[in-house]
Amino acid sequence: MTPRDEFLLILGMTAVTFGVRYFTLAALSRASLPEPLFRALRYVPPAVLAAIIAPAVLIDASGLNLSHTNAPLFASLVAIVVSWRTRNLLFTIVLGMLALWTWKAMFGV
Q1: Which residue range(s) make up the domain with 81?
Q2: Which of 34, 52, 74, 106 falls 20 to 30 Å from 43 in CA-CA distance?
Q3: What pTM value is reported for the model?
């Protein structure tokens, strides 16, 4: 695949993604959503984020990994607790990464 082909592929994916979203948003901008639907849509971003992160944290090459050697799982638990207690994004990232590196150093994974 040449760089030109890659550029055209990215351009095509951009056009499709933009097109689908633009027409949906344009149609919804003229209508008002019912309050229950509007409240339900607030949960979409956390649900999508959880669907992306959970497999990366819980599953490795051998399948579901809930053992003590799963450093991303431990770091995620630390980050969840820090985020819940402090509500500080930078502090959560820093402590989560420190937990990950410490766990990997301790168990050699």
Answers
A1: 40-107
A2: 74
A3: 0.65
